[in-house]
Amino acid sequence: MAEEEINYASVVFKTKTQPRPEAQKEEDTVYDEVKVPHKTPKQAADLNVSAGFLSDKKATNRRHHYQLLACCLGTFCVILLLGIIALGVFLLMNNNELKQLKNNQTTLLLIKHNLTEDNNKLRSENENLRRNNNNLTVTIGNLGRNNSNLIVINGNLTEAYAVVASKITNLTAENQKLTAENNKLNTQNQELKAQNNNLTEQIRNWSENGVARVQQIIDAYCPIDNNNNRQCKPCERGWLHYQSSCYAINNAKSPDQKTWEEAQHNCREKISFLAVIVNEDEKKFINDNSWHSKGVKGYWIGLRVEDGRWKWTDGSNLTESSWTQPPTNGHCAISFQNEEWKSVNCGEKNAWICKKKALSV
Questions:
Q1: CB under 8 Å to 31, separation ≥6 — which residues?
Q2: Does 186 reside within a domain?
Q3: What is the CATH number of the domain that holds 331?
Q4: Which of 88, 105, 138, 257 could pair covalently with 349 via S-S, beta carbons 3.0-4.6 A apart?
């Protein structure tokens, strides 16, 4: 049995629906087996070649159209998706911006309100400042006139101050002199007070002792001799007489020696003072009649440093030009036999020489 040839033919089915888009107007192809009458081999070959060529060409065209259509649809879908996303983002952003703009509008309205109030206040303050400026202008004018008057007054005061300053300088100098004199008088007053206290004490003692004390004085100046007669002398027993003064050389040993103040007190108890030497003759008499006993370094005399100067106990200044010991506060003078005086600390202990006026007989 001879083989049957199978040929392919294309059949187009048309529908009554609305026309498709241009991309879809291609006819749908349905392949089916179609039997044809037996032909000669040559005819069959020619027919097969022709039919195969036509069917392959149409199939290729359809696939190309389908691919193009699918690409367009995909592109359209992507664009549509991107548009939807962009629209959503835009709407979301516009919503946030709208809210932000509303908030900003509220804030700006509040700021505007505050600025309006501040502007009104500033206008009021500016008006007050303008009025104050006018008042200050008037005040400055008055002050300028007052300043001119004050300049004139200041000139007068400067001249008066120069005069007063000159007077103050003079008064200061006079006050310093008076202060120095007052200090000197205070020192003398203190010494006189000390003497007065000593004399008061002596008078009190004399008053207490009465006749006994007077009798002692009489016996001291007018002792009774072997013939029971009284012979009065210018000085008491134990005192040396020279010119119009009496001198007591106290040769106290070391345990009984005294400081300058203690020696002065001892002399006051004897109604005398530490020796004041007024000339060279008296100085020579003191030196000739004072001697070194064992333990005696020297004798206190009535000379010490007061206010940076050498002064005697009677308040007079040292005038002995040959003695040049520098005055040192807290120092007093001591006398040696046949030697110059020396300046030593008043707190040292030495023998001493008292002096008082001789009795006229």
A1: 8, 10
A2: no
A3: 3.10.100.10
A4: 257
Return d(Cα 359, Cα 217) in angstroms, integer. Answer: 11
Contacts of 339 (CB under 8 A, 6+ apart): 287
pLDDT lower than 50: segments of the chain: 1-5, 8, 12-36, 39, 47, 49
Beta strands in 24-104 (DSSP E): 33-35
What is the domain extent for residue 313? 239-357
The verdict on residue 182 lying in a domain is: no
Please give the distance of CA 235 from its chain centroid, rounded to a whole number. Answer: 74
Distance CA 67, CA 94 (A): 40
Q: Which residues, 6+ apart, have CB-to-CB distance to 217 below 8 Å?
A: none
Task: Name the burial class of residue 342, with classes exposed (0-12), middle (13-18) and buried (19+) by CB atoms within 10 angstroms of its CB.
Answer: middle
**Domains in the chain, number:** 1
How much is the pLDDT for 53?
Answer: 54
Q: What is the DSSP string of 235-297?
A: S-TT-EEETTEEEEEE---GGG-B-HHHHHHHHHHTT-EEPPP-SHHHHHHHHHH----TT--
pLDDT for the residue 23 = 43
What sign does the CA torsion over 317, 318, 324, 329 have? negative
Q: pLDDT tens digits for 91-113?
A: 887 778 788 888 888 888 889 88
The encoded tokens of residue 112 equal 């505007």
- At 156, give phi and psi (nearest 5°): -65, -40
Question: In this structure, is residue 80 part of a structural domain?
Answer: no
